[in-house]
Amino acid sequence: MALPTTMTCIEIRQPGPVEGMLPGQRPLAEPGTGEVLIEVAAAGVNRPDVLQRQGGYPPPAGASDIPGLEVAGRIAALGEGVTGLAIGQSVCALVSGGGYAQYCVAAAPLCLPFPRGYDAVRAAALPETFFTVWHNVFQRARLQPGESFLVHGGSSGIGTAAIQLAKAFGAKVFTTAGNAEKCQACRTLGADRAIDYKNEDFAEVILAETGGRGVDVILDMVGGDYLPRNIRSLAADGRHVSIAFLRGPRAEMNFLPVMLKRLTLTGSTLRPQSVANKAAIASDLAAKVWPLLDAGRVAPLIAATFPLTEAAKAHCLMESSAHIGKIILSVNIGQAI
Ligand SMILES: NC(=O)c1ccc[n+]([C@@H]2O[C@H](COP(=O)([O-])OP(=O)(O)OC[C@H]3O[C@@H](n4cnc5c(N)ncnc54)[C@H](OP(=O)(O)O)[C@@H]3O)[C@@H](O)[C@H]2O)c1
């Protein structure tokens, strides 16, 4: 079938409040060498999209300025040199921008099949969170079976994936969340202890629950005043991974415990990494995590779905932090504005 020449997408016309993010029309991008064009059926919404809309997270060089870091749909065209993928195949893909659109270009090695029984909404909920959690928790922090793990923001898209993966790979899982309902959802996902951080001091709880030892790995998205408390909550030879700073990137810290406990402090951002680095994460995910998704042992939690043209409402929900799990945009290919 012939492809249209233009598509509906979401444009950030004026960085700042959601009013500056509006539906628009753009020409279809063409897939380059090693890329595919995906007819998007669903796109995930992630906190970095909100930061981009606010003007604080510009797309890296060469990336689309259309927001959206993950999509699911059917392959509509193949660029040169693409092997192992076919037009019409259903895939979900990690992209470095352009997801909030009817069509999106993706690097072929960053496309993964829909897990067994998945529709596009569930498949679109996977790439950004699963690439991020796998890379940071298992590749960087090397979480091992039998170790203990703390993830802050347990009810976030990232948190809901991290709890399930850490549990599936044999860790004892602690998490923090902002109210009782979120804590219950985290326990349902497999967390051994969910700490309502507004009513409990998470560092005190971790030390009490681990007999004063602390946890082996912390995945942190909060930063700020959490950093010294995280250091206190880590066991000897513990690993601390920073992926965001919801309470700011600066902290005053005593580094003596880092030496005394032989801690490792690391972190990463996914988006600017090379396709080769991300492809290495994708092949690890295909081998070690997709079988768990196929078997239903791990699954994305969908908080809400909005039509593409209502992306602003999706951002409002994310900024409210009322959601538990992933927020998804559904894309109607016949839809025009
Ligand atoms: N480095 C990377 O490669 C990478 C990739 C993807 C995402 N991220 C980051 O990972 C984080 C989660 O992303 P997401 O898309 O899963 O976001 P999300 O679903 O919106 O979750 C963020 C959660 O953080 C909690 N939170 C918000 N403000 C907080 C504060 N000041 N103190 C403590 N907790 C706070 C909220 O839950 P409560 O009600 O529990 O407070 C909220 O639900 C974001 O910060 C994002 O930027 C990093």
Give a nutshell description of this structure:
Helix content is 29%, strand content 27%. It contains 11 helices and 15 strands.
**CATH topology group of the largest domain:** Quinone Oxidoreductase, Chain A, domain 1
Shape: globular
Q: What radius of gyration results from the CA coordinates?
A: 20 Å
What percentage of amino acids are in beta strands? Answer: 25-35%
> What is the strand tally?
15
Number of helical segments with 4 or more residues: 11
Overall helicity: 25-40%
- Category from helices, strands and their pairing: alpha/beta
CATH class of the largest domain: Alpha Beta
**Termini separation:** 22 Å
- CATH structural architecture of the largest domain: Alpha-Beta Complex
Going by CATH, the homologous superfamily of the largest domain would be: Medium-chain alcohol dehydrogenases, catalytic domain
Average pLDDT figure: 96
Element-level helix/strand string? EEEHEEEEHHEHEHEHEHEHEHHEHE
Any low-confidence stretches, pLDDT <50, length ≥5?
none
Bound molecules: NADP nicotinamide-adenine-dinucleotide phosphate
Number of domains: 2
What oligomeric state is this? single chain
Outline the biggest β-sheet: 7 strands, mixed
